[in-house]
## 1
Amino acid sequence: MSRSDAHQPWQGSARIFAAELLILPTGLVTAGYLTRHLGPDGYGLLTLGVSAMTWLQWTAISMLARASNRAIAAVGDWRPVAAEVVHLHLVVGAVIGLVVLIAAPWLSVALGQPSLTTTLRWLALELPLLVVAQGYRGALVASGDHNWVSVITAARWLVRMVAVIGMVALGWSVNGAVGGMLLASAVALALFRLRIGALHRATREERRTMRAGLLVLAAPLALAGIGARLFERADLFLLAALGGSTASLGHYGAAQNLTIVLSLLAGAVSPVVQATVTRLRRQGQHDELRRLQRDVLRMPYLVLPFTALAAGAASDIMHVVYGESFLGAATPFALLMLGSTALVAVSLSTVLLVTVDRAWVVVGLTGPMLVALLVLTLVLVPRFGAAGPAMASLVVSIVAAGVGQFLIGRYEAVCVPLRTTIVGVGLAMLAFAAGSAWPTVTAVGTVAKLFSICIVLVSALLLLREIPTHLLPFVAAPADPAKSPPSTS
């Protein structure tokens, strides 16, 4: 295997993650504009509706994503398989979108906000567009065309920011924001379709065989995906169901939105790693496979110091991003940031379990998480209010992360080095203390504080040789010229 091939997952993941990170500046600008123009109540309603639909969108995608990724990566001629993958995404997206269109009045009542009906129906129109776009995106990721995935991803976030702000500025309020989201998804779908070109489907008999293979693997992963996606938003839904005010929902949603960077990290790394691990196993590259698995399991511990820094500086971040009226989101944000780091570990562990045909083990790991979250939230909300769901999410995520890494050790005999665990946790404690003990009152001061402490953390990880320096020259390396992009014909 060439040096470029050996480091392809990190090159691809870095490019896709860099593009996904555009959601931070564009999302912060958008959120700052919306919170000031819609207020806590309006923003709370928008957040609740978008959270419900985002869960449905990503649940639909998760039902097929990992099975599709593995199926495409496991074959040489991937285009017929990709055609079947896109077709299944279209069917699933259209069915769920139609159900939401019909059930919107009942869903809005269940969420405790009957006025959400129209907004949910507009969001339902976006659902099939986004699901099909993700089908195309998954095909490009699995086939190795990471550069164009990153370009189209970046374009979507930029269009989304401009369209949402523009439509709200025209006076269309919450539904204008939804219209901007819909436009951005339509643009992304068009660009993915243009890049990948026509996907000619195989013969009927071949399609039946492909579909059977996909569904056998997708069935348990669909259950796991539904549970994992519901877990990510169930805390907000439970807070609403337990009588949380629209203002508290707005605060919690604002805090939750800022943790998306970790979901983006998992979303950028997981499919690329899964495709690469599948190819390495098929090609018998066992040394490279072990090395990759070990680096994947170490990643959450290297991320932990930076999320702990954000947790420590939660009040400053809330003040800068959302303004004085959203300081109540600081505590949920700090807890959710730490919990999201543990969820990254869960996501990466489940990806590695899928590659060794342990799909039902993944179900056994993710299923109990939702039950535990429900029980703990019911116990903690009466005592801690809006911080209760975040506390419950943190506890459950940490336990699940530990179980996930135990399972990888059992099935693959790969584990995180003790030294990495000690360094990651130790630096996290120092970063949290520094973030909370260094008060700032201006946006420039907050940015300067976070940037300087991040530089110290990166330097420490490099000096302690915890960042895998063998990868650094390759993160920004050009793609192997021997690898041609997928044909657009």
Note: The longest helix spans residues 23-73.
## 2
Amino acid sequence: MQHAVGSPLPPPHQPGHGPADGWSPAAQHPGPHRPGGTPQQNAPVPPPHPAPHFTGAPPAGPVPPAPQPPVPPVPHPPAPQHAPAPPVPDTTGHVPLPPGGPVPMPSSPPAATGPDPTATTLAVLLIGPAGAGKTSVAKFWADHRRAPTAHISLDDVREWVRSGFADPQRGWNDNSEAQYRLARRTCGFAARNFLANGISCILDDAIFPDRPAVGLGGWKRHVGPGLLPVVLLPGLEVVLERNAERSGNRRLTDEEVARIHGRMAGWYGSGLPIIDNSQLDVPSTARILDDVLARAIASPPKW
């Protein structure tokens, strides 16, 4: 027989003792103290849990109060929601760059001070035949300016194409023409981005006066009306000598150099500034270039 937890164990059964001898079903649930009861019956016992199977008479005494319904727990107010922490700043030094736009004409400083081409943001196009010294002068000029300056060489950008490079020395065709135009447009985009961020640019290219739409006109479309073209045109003998010192696909045949030089002579009637650097070294040519640019800033050429 199972008893609920906390109930007193029944006394052992003895012969001649029945329920009236001190143990009755009511003893499992003692009530208040009754006179004449046994000490075990009079002892205070904590009320046990009622056994589900007990069907005896209810204990004598006052009826305990009915159990109260459980009080629902008081809900706690929700925890305050804090605003999310601001994002951690980028530690890579990201700097937003303004988009590059067409380059306007450089503004002329007051006449009292005069233009200083070494401290002004400029876009310069150095034109000349192969062997004229364009790349050497452009690098030196960019290296020695007070203002930040980038040198963008068309030949360098054109040679970014590795597999499938269309070498003009093997014949001028549609592929070489397309790669030249693509390189010019890429150089123009690069120059506009540099100039939009305060960095001057000098570009060098061998363009012909008899093809304005492809050459000078194309550069003006790619960079903007503020582009300042300057022609570097030494004598044929000097060009041939300098071309002989070149290597790789930069070196042309003497016939090709003479043909290009003859076509470049058309710049003399174009109104563009021309520097004959036949007897000048690179630093001297760069100084004359500064003088030419100072005059071009004060009075932009019409081209």
Note: Residues 17-30 have pLDDT under 50 and may be disordered.
## 3
Amino acid sequence: MRILIAAAGSRGDVAPYTGLGAGLREAGHDVTLATTDAFAPLVREAGLGFTSLPSRPQAQGGVESRRELMRTAAAFVTELGQGFADAVDPGTDLLLLSTTTAPLGQHVAEAMGTPTIGVYLQPTAPTGDFPPTVMGTRSLGRPGNRIAGRFALRMADRVYAEAVTELRRRLDLPPMTPAETRRRQERENWPVLHGFSTALVARPSDWRAGLDVVGTWWPYVAPDRRLPGEVEDFLAAGARPVFVGFGSMAGGQGERLRGIAVRALRRAGLRGIVQAGSARLAVDGDDVLTIGDVPHALLFPRLAAVVHHAGAGTAAAALRAGTPSIPVPVTADQPFWAGRLAATGAATDPIPFASLTAERLADALGQTVRRQAYARAASVAARHMATEDGVGAVLKALG
């Protein structure tokens, strides 16, 4: 079967699909991943075909209001939709669509007569169990959570409205709004497989048929991949260190984070591995090592704790490693995942990024390392995650 996976966003929005794609390829399918050019090396390393999608433009300093952000997002998805139409080969047998690409891919699939399955990294369907992931962690009560969930979908519809209009016009399809498309999907119980662990989010009992939680899709790591020699040397030189990293978040915050990390590690009496990331965080010292990108699957099991931005992928990777977390959510769905992680008992209460200080971080680090309850909870969750087979669930859905 010729399968096209379509994903757009940050590294955390794309990398899990390299593991999913590699698993489908190993099962005998011909798999291509359509995403932005920045992630072409990740895709090719996994042995997958690559097709380019338009990139999100870099945000300008003046774009700050919610209205301006929505306008910028709408312009991007309009361009993404046109790029999507160019990316799909007529010989494609199946489209696997991410949260970001599904509102566009459905129309391309309709025009080409190609079946689709949703492969989401976040829960988006309204539920009484929790509020929408973009609205933090505070429950509004079951009716309130459902109302908020429907409101969040309407806001997403507004972002995609122009893109869908332009795309359907190009594809010679009759007009249809994003809301009408969504209602049709719900009537037809369009299948959506959610690639996160039930250790973090159990399937809500009030979801419709066709919505399932199948387990995490892990970023592809080559079987012969090893940690860099300098990382191995640092790990061997003393007690287990703490990881501090914010992935693609916290751009321009390097100096602030450097000072916080140094003071917190010294105050807690811990060694540290600091990942540069988008913040360009760099720390020098005998007890601190600065690194670039390394596979979380190789590094996290060898750490005492992980300080991170609580992106879905990083939160899951820490839990899979059985390593306690100190979540420092920055934006978007990160407060949601930070709260879910803390609810497992494997993480401290989240520290909002804007409130992060060396003192708060040092206290959280000391608490995490001293109290074995965090490590025990992380180990329990890791064993649970090991029983899940996210790729196998997708293969089963293919029939």
Note: Residues 59-64 have pLDDT under 50 and may be disordered.
